[in-house]
Amino acid sequence: MIRGVIFDLDGVLVTTDELHYQAWRQVADREGIYFDRTINHQLRGVSRMESLEIILERAGRAYTPEEKSALANRKNHLYRELLRTLTAADVLPGVQALLAELRRRGIRLAVASSSKNAPLILSRVGLKDAFDAVADGNDITHSKPDPEVFLLAAERLGLLPEECLVVEDAAAGIEGGRRAGMAVFGIGTPETLPKVERLAAGLADTTAEGLLGPG
Ligand code: BG6
Ligand code: MG
Predict the structure, then answer these.
(1) 110, 137: one domain
(2) Residue 215: its pLDDT value, please?
(3) How many angstroms separate the CA atoms of 102 and 195, rounded?
(4) Which of 6, 71, 155, 187 gives 169 a disulfide partner, CB atoms 3.0 to 4.6 angstroms apart?
Protein backbone atom coordinates (compact mmCIF):
# COMPACT_ATOMS: atom_id res chain seq x y z
CA MET A 1 0.00 0.00 0.00
CA ILE A 2 1.28 3.47 -0.94
CA ARG A 3 1.74 5.69 2.14
CA GLY A 4 4.04 8.35 0.67
CA VAL A 5 4.42 10.20 -2.64
CA ILE A 6 7.88 11.45 -3.60
CA PHE A 7 7.83 14.24 -6.20
CA ASP A 8 10.61 15.36 -8.49
CA LEU A 9 10.90 19.17 -8.43
CA ASP A 10 12.07 20.62 -11.79
CA GLY A 11 9.40 20.02 -14.44
CA VAL A 12 6.95 18.25 -12.10
CA LEU A 13 6.17 20.82 -9.39
CA VAL A 14 7.76 23.94 -10.88
CA THR A 15 8.47 25.35 -14.37
CA THR A 16 12.24 25.54 -13.75
CA ASP A 17 13.06 23.05 -16.52
CA GLU A 18 12.59 25.98 -18.95
CA LEU A 19 15.01 28.14 -16.93
CA HIS A 20 17.63 25.35 -16.96
CA TYR A 21 17.23 25.31 -20.74
CA GLN A 22 17.67 29.08 -21.08
CA ALA A 23 20.80 29.13 -18.88
CA TRP A 24 22.46 26.18 -20.66
CA ARG A 25 21.51 27.74 -24.01
CA GLN A 26 23.46 30.90 -23.17
CA VAL A 27 26.50 28.82 -22.13
CA ALA A 28 26.36 26.64 -25.26
CA ASP A 29 25.82 29.61 -27.61
CA ARG A 30 28.85 31.44 -26.22
CA GLU A 31 30.98 28.32 -26.76
CA GLY A 32 29.55 27.83 -30.28
CA ILE A 33 28.11 24.43 -29.32
CA TYR A 34 24.82 23.26 -30.85
CA PHE A 35 22.08 22.87 -28.25
CA ASP A 36 18.31 22.54 -28.54
CA ARG A 37 15.25 21.51 -26.53
CA THR A 38 15.57 17.86 -27.55
CA ILE A 39 19.11 17.71 -26.17
CA ASN A 40 17.87 19.63 -23.12
CA HIS A 41 15.40 16.85 -22.44
CA GLN A 42 18.33 14.47 -21.84
CA LEU A 43 19.54 16.78 -19.05
CA ARG A 44 16.39 16.31 -16.98
CA GLY A 45 17.14 14.73 -13.65
CA VAL A 46 20.90 14.52 -14.14
CA SER A 47 23.38 16.60 -12.15
CA ARG A 48 24.89 19.89 -13.28
CA MET A 49 28.29 18.38 -14.22
CA GLU A 50 26.71 15.41 -15.99
CA SER A 51 24.47 17.83 -17.90
CA LEU A 52 27.56 19.76 -19.00
CA GLU A 53 29.22 16.53 -20.22
CA ILE A 54 26.15 15.82 -22.41
CA ILE A 55 26.32 19.34 -23.89
CA LEU A 56 30.08 19.04 -24.52
CA GLU A 57 29.54 15.85 -26.57
CA ARG A 58 28.81 18.26 -29.46
CA ALA A 59 31.80 20.55 -28.82
CA GLY A 60 34.52 20.80 -31.44
CA ARG A 61 37.31 20.40 -28.89
CA ALA A 62 38.20 18.90 -25.53
CA TYR A 63 37.69 20.99 -22.39
CA THR A 64 40.00 20.88 -19.36
CA PRO A 65 38.55 20.16 -15.89
CA GLU A 66 39.11 23.84 -15.01
CA GLU A 67 37.20 25.00 -18.09
CA LYS A 68 34.37 22.59 -17.30
CA SER A 69 34.15 23.84 -13.78
CA ALA A 70 34.05 27.46 -15.05
CA LEU A 71 31.25 26.61 -17.51
CA ALA A 72 29.20 24.84 -14.83
CA ASN A 73 29.65 27.82 -12.52
CA ARG A 74 28.64 30.20 -15.29
CA LYS A 75 25.49 28.18 -15.98
CA ASN A 76 24.58 28.15 -12.30
CA HIS A 77 25.12 31.91 -12.06
CA LEU A 78 22.85 32.51 -15.07
CA TYR A 79 20.30 30.02 -13.73
CA ARG A 80 20.21 31.65 -10.31
CA GLU A 81 19.68 35.04 -11.96
CA LEU A 82 16.65 33.53 -13.71
CA LEU A 83 15.44 31.98 -10.43
CA ARG A 84 15.11 35.52 -9.04
CA THR A 85 12.07 35.93 -11.30
CA LEU A 86 10.39 32.84 -9.80
CA THR A 87 7.14 33.32 -7.87
CA ALA A 88 4.20 31.20 -6.66
CA ALA A 89 2.79 31.61 -10.19
CA ASP A 90 5.54 29.25 -11.41
CA VAL A 91 4.12 26.31 -9.47
CA LEU A 92 2.73 24.09 -12.23
CA PRO A 93 -1.06 23.75 -12.69
CA GLY A 94 -2.77 21.20 -10.48
CA VAL A 95 0.06 20.93 -7.91
CA GLN A 96 -1.60 22.68 -4.97
CA ALA A 97 -4.92 20.85 -5.39
CA LEU A 98 -3.21 17.47 -5.72
CA LEU A 99 -1.00 18.00 -2.66
CA ALA A 100 -4.08 18.99 -0.64
CA GLU A 101 -6.01 15.94 -1.85
CA LEU A 102 -3.12 13.60 -0.98
CA ARG A 103 -2.81 15.17 2.47
CA ARG A 104 -6.53 14.66 3.09
CA ARG A 105 -5.93 10.96 2.44
CA GLY A 106 -3.14 10.90 5.03
CA ILE A 107 -0.39 10.43 2.43
CA ARG A 108 3.07 11.67 3.41
CA LEU A 109 4.72 14.00 0.90
CA ALA A 110 8.36 14.45 -0.11
CA VAL A 111 10.54 16.07 -2.75
CA ALA A 112 13.51 14.21 -4.28
CA SER A 113 15.55 16.46 -6.57
CA SER A 114 19.04 16.29 -8.08
CA SER A 115 19.24 20.08 -7.81
CA LYS A 116 21.43 21.89 -5.33
CA ASN A 117 19.12 24.87 -5.84
CA ALA A 118 16.05 22.95 -4.60
CA PRO A 119 15.82 24.70 -1.17
CA LEU A 120 15.99 28.13 -2.85
CA ILE A 121 13.34 27.17 -5.42
CA LEU A 122 10.94 25.69 -2.86
CA SER A 123 11.17 28.79 -0.74
CA ARG A 124 10.76 31.21 -3.71
CA VAL A 125 7.57 29.52 -4.94
CA GLY A 126 6.12 29.14 -1.43
CA LEU A 127 6.31 25.32 -1.26
CA LYS A 128 8.91 25.13 1.51
CA ASP A 129 6.44 23.93 4.13
CA ALA A 130 4.28 21.83 1.81
CA PHE A 131 6.36 18.65 2.28
CA ASP A 132 7.19 16.35 5.17
CA ALA A 133 10.69 15.73 3.78
CA VAL A 134 13.07 17.07 1.15
CA ALA A 135 16.13 15.29 -0.27
CA ASP A 136 18.16 17.20 -2.87
CA GLY A 137 21.46 17.57 -4.69
CA ASN A 138 23.17 18.84 -1.53
CA ASP A 139 22.45 15.57 0.31
CA ILE A 140 23.61 12.96 -2.19
CA THR A 141 26.76 11.55 -3.78
CA HIS A 142 25.13 9.95 -6.80
CA SER A 143 22.53 11.72 -8.91
CA LYS A 144 19.55 10.08 -10.67
CA PRO A 145 19.35 7.44 -12.23
CA ASP A 146 21.01 6.28 -9.00
CA PRO A 147 18.28 5.54 -6.41
CA GLU A 148 20.10 7.41 -3.59
CA VAL A 149 17.92 10.56 -3.50
CA PHE A 150 14.69 8.52 -3.46
CA LEU A 151 15.90 6.17 -0.71
CA LEU A 152 16.92 9.18 1.36
CA ALA A 153 13.52 10.84 0.85
CA ALA A 154 11.73 7.62 1.94
CA GLU A 155 13.98 7.32 4.99
CA ARG A 156 13.22 10.93 5.92
CA LEU A 157 9.50 10.17 5.56
CA GLY A 158 9.96 7.15 7.82
CA LEU A 159 8.62 4.84 5.10
CA LEU A 160 9.86 1.72 3.33
CA PRO A 161 10.64 2.00 -0.40
CA GLU A 162 7.70 -0.25 -1.30
CA GLU A 163 5.37 2.15 0.50
CA CYS A 164 6.41 5.03 -1.81
CA LEU A 165 5.34 6.26 -5.24
CA VAL A 166 7.76 8.40 -7.29
CA VAL A 167 6.38 11.09 -9.64
CA GLU A 168 8.93 12.02 -12.31
CA ASP A 169 9.28 13.77 -15.69
CA ALA A 170 12.78 12.44 -16.41
CA ALA A 171 13.80 9.04 -17.73
CA ALA A 172 16.71 9.16 -15.25
CA GLY A 173 14.26 9.73 -12.40
CA ILE A 174 11.91 6.93 -13.46
CA GLU A 175 14.91 4.58 -13.55
CA GLY A 176 16.09 5.82 -10.15
CA GLY A 177 12.64 5.31 -8.61
CA ARG A 178 12.43 1.78 -10.00
CA ARG A 179 15.94 0.95 -8.76
CA ALA A 180 14.85 2.20 -5.33
CA GLY A 181 12.10 -0.43 -5.37
CA MET A 182 9.31 2.16 -5.61
CA ALA A 183 6.23 2.46 -7.80
CA VAL A 184 6.61 5.14 -10.51
CA PHE A 185 4.25 7.59 -12.22
CA GLY A 186 5.46 9.57 -15.25
CA ILE A 187 4.76 13.19 -16.12
CA GLY A 188 5.13 13.49 -19.89
CA THR A 189 4.13 11.61 -23.02
CA PRO A 190 4.85 8.12 -24.41
CA GLU A 191 7.49 9.86 -26.59
CA THR A 192 9.33 11.54 -23.69
CA LEU A 193 8.88 8.61 -21.29
CA PRO A 194 8.68 5.38 -23.25
CA LYS A 195 8.12 2.20 -21.22
CA VAL A 196 6.29 4.06 -18.45
CA GLU A 197 2.85 2.52 -18.03
CA ARG A 198 1.23 5.10 -15.77
CA LEU A 199 1.54 8.56 -17.26
CA ALA A 200 -0.13 12.01 -17.33
CA ALA A 201 0.80 15.14 -19.29
CA GLY A 202 0.90 17.15 -16.06
CA LEU A 203 -0.31 16.96 -12.48
CA ALA A 204 -3.45 18.90 -13.53
CA ASP A 205 -4.34 15.88 -15.67
CA THR A 206 -4.49 13.43 -12.79
CA THR A 207 -5.95 13.08 -9.28
CA ALA A 208 -4.94 11.41 -6.02
CA GLU A 209 -6.95 8.39 -7.15
CA GLY A 210 -5.14 8.46 -10.52
CA LEU A 211 -1.81 8.34 -8.70
CA LEU A 212 -2.69 5.88 -5.96
CA GLY A 213 -5.53 3.87 -7.42
CA PRO A 214 -8.98 3.56 -5.82
CA GLY A 215 -9.23 3.31 -2.06
C1 BG6 B 1 17.47 18.49 -11.84
C2 BG6 B 1 17.22 19.00 -13.24
O3 BG6 B 1 16.33 18.64 -11.05
O4 BG6 B 1 18.55 19.20 -11.24
C5 BG6 B 1 18.50 18.91 -14.05
O6 BG6 B 1 16.20 18.22 -13.84
C7 BG6 B 1 19.62 19.66 -13.34
O8 BG6 B 1 18.26 19.44 -15.32
C9 BG6 B 1 19.80 19.10 -11.93
O10 BG6 B 1 20.84 19.53 -14.06
C11 BG6 B 1 20.87 19.84 -11.14
O12 BG6 B 1 20.43 21.14 -10.85
P13 BG6 B 1 21.31 22.29 -10.18
O14 BG6 B 1 20.28 23.32 -9.81
O15 BG6 B 1 21.97 21.69 -8.97
O16 BG6 B 1 22.29 22.74 -11.20
MG1 MG C 1 12.41 16.83 -13.46
Answers:
(1) yes
(2) 59
(3) 26
(4) 187
